[in-house]
Amino acid sequence: MSGSSSIVSMKKIVQQLRFEAGINRVKVSQAAADLQQFCLQHAQQDPLLCGMSTSNNPFRPQKVCSFL
Amino acid sequence: MGEMEELRKEMENLKDQITAARKTFQDTTLQEAASGVTVVGRVQLKTRKTLRGHLAKIYAMHWGTDSTLCVSASQDGKLIVWDSITTNKVNAIPLKSSWVMTCAYAPSGNLVACGGLDNMCSIYNLKGKDGNVKVMRELAAHTGYLSCCRFLSDTEIITSSGDCTCVLWDIETGTEKMVFAGHQGDCMSLGVSPDFKFFISGACDFTAKLWDIREAQCRQTFSGHESDINAIGFFPNGNAVITGSDDATCKLYDLRADQELITYQDSSIMCGVTSLAASKSGRLLLAGHDDFNVNIWDMLKSERVGVLAGHDNRVSCIGVSSDGMACCTGSWDSFLKIWN
């Protein structure tokens, strides 16, 4: 019966919400500080952020080689 | 009061409880916390390579873990594996169904997968004995289109579908190991955590969900978007999630604070977000839009610091390579571009 199946669905939704309500949380100040720290710590290893020299860029057009 | 009424009341109470709990942990905003950080300087990336070969709209691309090979899927009915440095096509795989919407590269480099309106996820072995690329498995069980797929390994893959579920598959047996149900709308995109223990899904119910892969349990649900979430990804440390939506904004949700930290929006941006990727340090967010552009955001300061303009049609997919050296965009104009 459609009535009982929507009750079953609703029970699942309520059960899921109970689970989500009970999780442990951390303060936004802590979360934000950690994100900031990660960004700053890894900045030098981020080529799109810092750029790279031509010689280090695998996608830069190769210089023309000439035979000596 | 009928049982349904009671359940509805309890649902509303729990939702209010969650909202209140999140508020008590909101002792500041990301904007305030990052007020001492200087905005990133203007980011100007150039197109270094254009990958030409597809004959119709490109719907998806995914980098291989070697940061050189990548796979793209087009509605011309082909999967192409490219060497992004030489622009050579390593493999051009004809598909049974041309209505492809997603593709993925296995971390090992041995397999690629794709799927779409055929409701299936097809796995191809790139390293077959005779050198021919053949279908290895067809994973069929979804009752809706395949919107996204991501390998956990050569033996497991996760798919998201228009049937509102995500599934973890055993590739060898071709069977469903776990079904992740809970979204109330088509699942559009998924992302796997850096430690492979969790994945996130974005859906047409405007929410993003965090799932524990082994427990098949939804741990957290994030709301706030005002339309379908088309794109989703993890912040590189695995503690935050970035979403992109038809509402033209991207949002950053922190998993440990269990809430939205910031929205990336601009009144001049009116087109939906189709795809997104974070740079290696997480500082830059690259978002592809329906208006043919990619916007680059300083993730901490929520300021637009660059634009990639080069495609002649919608940017449908974007990816940053594992070594962070390059960003690849794919478009309905049938080209892929490599930028750095």
Give a written overview of the molecule.
- The longest helix of chain A is centred in the N-terminal third of the chain and has 20 residues, at 2-21.
- Helix content of chain A is 57%, strand content 0%.
- By secondary structure, chain A is mostly helical.
- Chain A has helices at residues 2-21, 28-42, 47-50.
- With 340 residues, chain B is mainly beta.
- In chain B, 8% of the residues lie in helices and 49% in strands.
- Chain B has two helices and 28 strands.
- In chain B, strand 18 (229-234) and strand 19 (240-245) form a beta hairpin.
- The longest helix of chain B is centred in the first third of the chain and has 22 residues, at 3-24.
- Chains A and B meet through helix 1, helix 2 and helix 3 of A and helix 1 and strand 17 of B.
- Chain A: It is found in: Cell membrane.
- Chain A: One of its GO terms (cellular component) is heterotrimeric G-protein complex.
- Chain A: G proteins are composed of 3 units; alpha, beta and gamma.
- Chain A: This is Guanine nucleotide-binding protein subunit gamma.
- Chain A: InterPro entries: G-protein_gamma (IPR001770), G-protein_gamma-like_dom (IPR015898), GGL_sf (IPR036284).
